[in-house]
Design a protein that fits this description.
Largest interface: A-B, 25 and 18 residues
Oligomer: heterodimer
Strand order of the largest sheet of chain A: 8-7-13-14
Helix content of chain A: 25-40%
Shape of chain A: globular
Number of strands of chain B: 19
Family (chain A): Belongs to the SusD family.
Largest sheet of chain B: 5 strands, mixed
Number of strands of chain A: 14
Protein name (chain A): RagB/SusD family nutrient uptake outer membrane protein
Radius of gyration of chain B: 24 Å
Pfam family, one (chain A): SusD-like_3
Number of helices of chain B: 1
Subcellular location (chain A): Cell outer membrane
CATH architecture of the largest domain in chain B: Sandwich
Structural class of chain A: alpha+beta
Keywords (chain A): Cell outer membrane, Membrane, Signal
Structural class of chain B: mainly beta
Chain lengths: 631, 231
């Protein structure tokens, strides 16, 4: 009987402890999922959510989305056999470059809605987070409008009510200029909520907002103006094309935003000018992470953090590289010859004299002397060095009778006439025809290729950031907008500092500024930064420059500096050493223009490429989406 | 159960089940040419597209295809009703449009195979092209007839004589080309083009005349001519 008490006690305990809290007991918060309120309770937590949104920004050429996005448009030859299709196709598919990531837009909208109602955040934090998210949303809409034209403008999260009728979620495409207006007005609205800090590069700042306004307004202005030359590239609802009457308004906005940034109202940005050697200085813009005054907004990377990029592994000069890998981007002669001479004139790279006889050079680099320093800063030329070690680019020996002795492998050896022992007859970096990773155009890329030890090794990679906006582009935007507004004098004033940094110290005058000059300056300054496609599209030059006709050598050498010059196939320039003991020129260098053997296609930009294809599935799901013109 | 019996069962199941879950392949053959008054219009390889739509099966997307260089097309379809369009901006010709500017449809009812020519209105026609070779020089003589002469008429931007080693002959695929700008054409009834062909290790070549119309992307072509070539 004495045992009954503890039993009773235990039962009583079970009833009181077990029964009263029944509902609470079962209703347990999951430990692996945060509620919105929890997620938006702590600034560090919110920043990590925002970091994901930053990471999902889309770049045309990113250092971490493959080298091939840099290699197209005849500005370079892709020296990797698996990518030869870039120079073998005759046209781009209508779906090239398309993007339609409304999942990302939804996540941005949700972030904005949740951060707006968050109670635990301080006002200062909240303001900055919201400004950043709105910037990122505007930036992605900008990316979409560049590629697709007007798209549905969704600025709040959409919720399906499961009624079986989703038509209320189907939004038509906005007009093209409405998207540009949205990008500009959002950036205007948030610019003063962003920090004025030129040293903040990876999070957006007031400088980034102004830079985005000037670029977006410039794009819209030029589509309005030059869209008039392609009346076929329009839609009656203006989802594609902008009325010509709006051009002046956009150019004015572009110029004003650029002026605001140049005046220092967002902090002191400046052209990078830290190194005395001009070409090295230009290359360093893209490599120097310490207080770089030129970069405005970047996609950043950090060694040993898991967020590194392998661009250098893909593109470094192959010979002597860590792990012997690289060499994939070979800039074309088309681009190389477009760098001006120091007297502001254009000329082909001189391989023959006026009488048509070959010119013999004492060394490999002499032929490129006296040109825009950006040439050396963008391209690794034969006879120049990378990481302090000379690259080995030369194609073979030329004999007295003009015949060539060369090898079919890197650094191959053969016995020359009159000699007994074999000698090296081709460079270790090539060029060897159709041999991947050699410099098949005779050139390697320097821009963004990181000389830091380890950057070219797969296990380490590089932490060089990709610059999305930089100060020189803002100056060129200002120059173009001023030129289009009839202020050629101001345009020259904006353009000259950019040119002076490249060693072109004879200033351009107002009379020198022309549309061709503007086009040319952007091409050489901003090469391999993801601009050329969008520039050619907005000027409606793409279908002229990439017209699908094969290029002759006469096409290549003529009309340098003309905006409408054909550019459909990447040419190369191969150095040969003269082997002719009887000649005074024995041992000197001659150059030949070659079309790399793998180049069989000619780029053709069809009118239907101006605005990328909207997938049939998207249009089937939402019949309000009108299709792109000319497809 | 012997092994024979197992094999028998497997064979029976395999043969029976195949019939059950497979559709018949499409077997109605739709083919023809894109024509103007019965004459086929010659086009560039893989450039001029057309689309068929079939409604009533859930989501609607186009069945897209391209016209061959000789203007022909060919598709295998299921029986049923289809709507045919040539999208705006395709081809060196006018395709009928709705008042709103969308491409108008032609209804095609498939009930077995059929041959159907697609009638369009070209801006120009290349008439009576003749290609002759003498040594390394190839010359083309032809006549240009302007078909559309009303307010929507368009000028000739240029004419080109293309030579290639294969029967794909166009701006992108050629070994030699000679182009004459439209404003330099003196007489539309007698256009001459001469081109010098580089040294090729081939005893025959293909030639074709292409006509670029101002403001229209796709070129009009003459039929591909194969001719003997000796240098």
């Amino acid at each position: 009987m004495k045992k009954i008490l503890p039993i009773l006690f235990a039962i009583a305990l079970l009833y009181t402890a077990g029964c009263t809290k029944d509902s609470d007991f079962l209703n347990v918060q999951p430990t692996s999922i945060l509620t919105n309120e929890q997620a938006f309770s702590d600034p560090a937590q919110v920043l990590s959510i925002l970091a994901d949104l930053y990471n999902r920004q889309l770049d045309f050429s990113g250092l971490d989305n493959g080298w091939a996005s840099f290699a197209d448009f005849s500005e370079s030859f892709p020296s990797e056999n698996g990518s030869a299709h870039i120079v073998q196709r005759n046209e781009w598919g209508f779906d090239a470059w398309n993007t339609w990531d409304y999942g990302y837009i939804r996540d941005l909208n949700l972030f904005i809605e949740r951060a707006t109602v968050a109670k635990a955040l301080s006002d200062a934090d909240k303001t900055r987070f919201l400004a950043e998210a709105r910037f990122l949303r505007a930036s992605y809409y900008f990316e979409m409008v560049k590629r697709m034209g007007g798209v549905p403008l969704i600025t709040e999260s959409l919720l399906y009510d499961f009624s079986g009728d989703p038509t209320y979620l189907q939004h038509p495409r906005a007009k093209e200029h409405e998207i540009y207006d949205f990008v500009i007005s959002e950036a205007e609205a948030v610019k003063n909520n962003l920090p004025e800090n030129p040293n903040e590069k990876s999070r957006v700042t007031k400088g980034a907002a102004l830079a985005m306004i000037t670029r977006a307004a410039l794009y819209a202005g030029s589509i309005a103006k030059y869209g008039a030359t392609t009346p076929q590239v329009t839609l009656p609802g203006l989802e594609v094309s902008i009325p010509a009457s709006m051009a002046t308004g956009y150019y004015t906005k572009a110029l004003n935003a650029a002026k605001e940034l140049i005046s220092g109202s967002a902090g002191s940005y400046a052209l990078y000018n830290k190194k005395p050697e001009l070409a090295e200085n230009f290359a360093s813009i893209f490599l120097d992470k310490g207080n770089n005054p030129e970069s405005i907004w970047v996609e950043d990377f950090k060694l040993k953090s898991g967020r590194v990029q392998g661009f250098t592994v893909s593109t470094q000069p192959r010979y002597g590289a860590e792990e012997e890998e690289g060499g994939r981007i070979n800039p074309s002669l088309n681009l190389v010859e477009s760098f001006e001479k120091l007297d502001n004139t254009y000329a082909p790279v001189p391989i023959t004299d006026a009488a048509g006889n070959p010119i013999f050079y004492n060394n490999l680099s002499e032929i490129f002397a006296g040109r825009d320093a950006r040439l050396h800063g963008t391209v690794i030329l034969p006879g120049s060095s990378f990481k302090g070690r000379p690259v080995d680019i030369w194609a073979g020996y030329q004999l007295a009778d003009g015949n060539i002795i060369t090898g079919d492998d890197r650094g191959a050896q053969k016995t020359l006439p009159g000699q007994t022992a074999p000698v090296q007859v081709v460079g270790f970096d090539g060029p060897v025809s159709s041999k991947e990773f050699t410099a098949q155009s005779g050139f390697y890329l320097r821009k963004y290729v990181d000389p830091t030890p380890g950057a070219g090794s797969r296990g380490t990679n590089s932490e060089v950031p990709f610059i999305r906006y930089r100060y020189a582009e803002v100056l060129l935007n200002a120059a173009e907008a001023a030129f289009e507004l009839g202020q050629a004098d101001a345009a020259a004033g904006y353009m000259n500092p950019v040119r002076a940094r490249a060693g072109l110290t004879i200033p351009l005058t107002a009379a020198d500024i022309s549309f061709d000059r503007i086009v040319h300056e952007r091409r050489v300054e901003l090469a391999f930064e993801g601009h050329i496609l969008f520039d050619m599209k907005r000027w409606r030059l793409a279908h002229i420059v990439w017209d699908g006709n094969k290029m002759t050598v006469a096409d290549l050498l003529g009309n340098i500096g003309s905006a409408t010059k054909r550019n459909t196939q990447p040419y190369g320039l191969w150095p040969y050493r003269l082997h002719d003991a009887a000649s005074v020129n024995n041992g000197k260098w001659v150059f030949r223009i070659v079309l790399p053997a793998l180049v069989t296609g000619a780029n053709r930009f069809r009118l239907g490429n101006y605005y990328s294809f909207i997938d049939d599935n998207i249009r089937a799901n939402n019949p309000k989406i009108v299709r792109q013109p000319n497809q | 159960m012997t092994i024979d019996r197992i094999i028998l069962i497997v064979v029976v199941i395999t043969t029976i089940s195949c019939k059950k879950d497979n559709y018949d392949s499409p077997n109605a053959h739709l083919h023809g040419h894109v024509v103007y008054k019965g004459e086929a219009i010659e086009l560039e390889y893989d450039q001029v597209r057309f689309e068929l739509y079939q409604y009533g099966f859930g989501k609607t997307g186009p069945i897209s295809a391209v016209f061959a260089p000789d203007g022909s097309y060919s598709m295998l379809l299921f029986n049923g009703e289809y709507k045919f369009i040539i999208p705006n901006g395709q081809g060196p010709f006018k395709w009928k449009q709705t008042p709103q500017g969308a491409p108008d449809t032609t209804v095609i009812t498939m009930n077995g195979s059929q041959e159907l020519d697609i009638e369009v209105t070209p801006y120009y026609m290349i008439r009576n092209p003749q290609v002759t070779a003498s040594g390394a020089t190839v010359s083309g003589v032809f006549k240009i007839e302007k078909i559309i002469t009303d307010a929507s008429a368009k000028d000739i931007e240029s004419v080109s004589l293309y030579i290639n080693k294969t029967q794909f002959v166009s701006g992108a695929d050629n070994v030699a080309v000679k182009t004459l700008n439209g404003k330099d054409i003196a007489d539309l009834n007698n256009v001459h083009l001469n081109v010098t062909v580089p040294n090729l290790n081939q005893t025959y070549l293909y030639a074709r005349v292409g006509l670029k119309i101002a403001g229209i992307e796709d070129r009009m072509f003459s039929p591909v001519t194969k001719y003997p070539f000796r240098k």
